[in-house]
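Table S2 (continued). Query chain:
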Amino acid sequence: MTQSSRIPHIHHAKLGGLHHKLVLESPRRIHYGNDFPVSGNVLLKHLPLLRGINSPLNAELFGPLQVDIVLKGEARIHHEAESRGEIFRLCKEVVTIHDGPFRAPADAEEVLHFSIKFPALAAPVTNTAVAAVQDGDGIWNFRERVSSVETGPLPPTLEVLHNSHSWGTFGSTNLHTVTKPAIKVQYTVEARVRMPGIDVEIVNADAASGGAPVFYDQPRVPTAIAQRDQTLTSDASQRFTVQNDSLRPAYEQPHGLRSKTKAFLKPVDPPKFVFDANFIGIPLHAYIGQPLSFAITIEPDETSTTRTNPDVFLDKCTISLIAHTTGIQPAPLKIVKTKEATFSSARPFSREDGMTKAIDIGVLSWVSTTFTFRNISRTYKLRIASQFTVGSQQLSTSRDVPLTIHPPLELDVSRPIDMEDDPDALPSYQEASRSNNAGDFAEDAAEGSAQVPSYEQAVSGHDHGGHHAGSDHGHGGFAGGFGG
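Corresponding output:
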């Protein structure tokens, strides 16, 4: 049960209880590979046996104490229609931070610091096969043997709901029912405390939560690889045809009742303007913390019948980041975030600018990167929806482009890390759990800036360690108005 400072825990052991609470130093940090260890403190507090309501037994706790830190991860797939689940154990790392004598006066608090790293690879998976062997008596014996051992990288933190729950529509679902995620990749760190041979009750304040969530993603990418991949782009083109009387010069347009009647009785085909909208340099690879952009150019076609080329305006360009996650059927398809891209000018396309407008998507903030692990895969695409105006007519087009999302670039070790611009310290994209409070991301921007809280502050939620599993119903995508 979770220990609260407001509700006294009734101890039954002779020496009362040893309460412990784990507090992360940087609960919002995204750990890319094992570049930074998971670090924090274990808060210990001895609460002796109560004689009466307010008369604690003034007893000192003394004896052997062992404190282990356990970092573990697992992936779960919940098949809603089949009411079954799959569980993949990803990792389990254990470090001992104290193994020896321990002394604590009544109501005293102790702080034990810890640091633990993610493993380089996920736990190996052993595949077996059955071999049939016939003995000398002609009897067939079936033996199980190891056919292969698979190893691979750890998958990123992820939580995805079933399609029926992804858009905030409950349907016939009971509002008081907790919806199980369709796919969940979660990493947690917890403390295990023992005092062998001592009659004291060990009370874990994190027991109900199962440990403090830790956000993980794949290792950072060398700059040279990113520079190569960022040159890989795609182009697209859309042809438009505009034909109406608004394209005529002003002096050719009918004025007055007689002219309009004549134009109605003896219609003449209105002029036609044909042009190609070219989308140039659409990125195929994106890196967390790096900007994304492309360009739109306008190319009039020679089949146009207008005397001069009319002005072409770009009204808006809407960018959507769409995630596709496999592992269940039907595979969830989710618009993670949408923003209005900015472009160079509200003026029409002009020859002075090469009939081109630069489109700024923004800086990509954290989302789970593209990955494949066992039965789970995560891919993305950009949806580019544009609207143009020519004369009195509006024209729209939409196109989806595949996008591979990578972790951030490797840190420049030649300069100190500025925590204020560290993209890991305060991710603007947080795949947050249903209990997420948006305010959690407005505080503690600087890593390790907060002091270690007291035990009472920690168990009452004042440790600023918002425990949020990543989920697709949070916010995120591109920074600068798109990622929070």
